User: What shape does this take?
Amino acid sequence: MAHWRTFARVVAAAGVAAAVGLLPAGTAAHAAPSVDEIERQLDQAWQKIEPLIEQYNKVHSQLKSNQKKAAALEDKVRPLELQVELAMTRVGDIAAEQYKYGPANVLNAVLRTGSPTTLGDQLALLDHLARNQRQRIEAVSQTRDRYAAEKRKLDQLVATQKKQEADLAARRKAIQADIDRLEKMRLAAYGNTNSTGGSLRIGACPAVYIGGAAGVAVKTACAQIGKPYVFGADGPDSFDCSGLTQYAWGKAGVSLTHFTGAQWTEGTAVSRSNARPGDLVFFYSDRHHVGMYVGNGLMVHASRTGVPVKMAKIDTMPIAGFRRPG
Assistant: This one.
């Protein structure tokens, strides 16, 4: 009976695969693809989607960074705005004095008084008063200009954020449509059960003991085995590939960006022969996939939708290189 159910699922998968164009026309009736073949086709389709996901992660990380910068600028702009208001009030007071008394009246008042006693002293006092007013007005202008410059930076960041948010929404919609299509294929191949692509654990995790921050990171990654893949997720309940490595190293006190391209530059290059548990291993020429190396040629990674976080051999994909965070 179990063999019959498996056969029925494979036949159904063949129908769906032919419908979405994965199989050549006319082959569905002659030879149903095996479950391994369906997995291979899903992996090939995912290789086209994952770079888009990492680009999404890049824009999302930039947005989060800009939001922090905007908040810091807003904190900086707020007191400057108050300074401008106070300074403009002082300018208003100066203008009111000039309107009420006028320069000639101020001059006459000084000259009529007995102190300062000499004309020279009186003229020097007038010059001092004029200079003082100019300085007060210049100080206001400088404060106002400083505020305007910081406000322009803030406004530009906010405008950039709005564009990024719109871009993210469009990318998420397109990516989700592709993921939904793959999910239908997977369900046709496996029914309502989850595909795990084999055992989630294929050895001890970590395979080799290591202490320090790397030890914390690799043990954290191992503890996430079995949690679902969700694109754009960085834990604690679900992950994508760079979200998992960011989360694991974050628990070790090392900050990584949720984007494979950034994580490649945030670590020190190490050779394969010198790789140790906790190192990040990147795949494909554009480095759009990353996993956590756990020793003995094994890694923990969040591979694709429908497959939980699991262990795998690092040689199952073309390796681009290793990086050591921290």
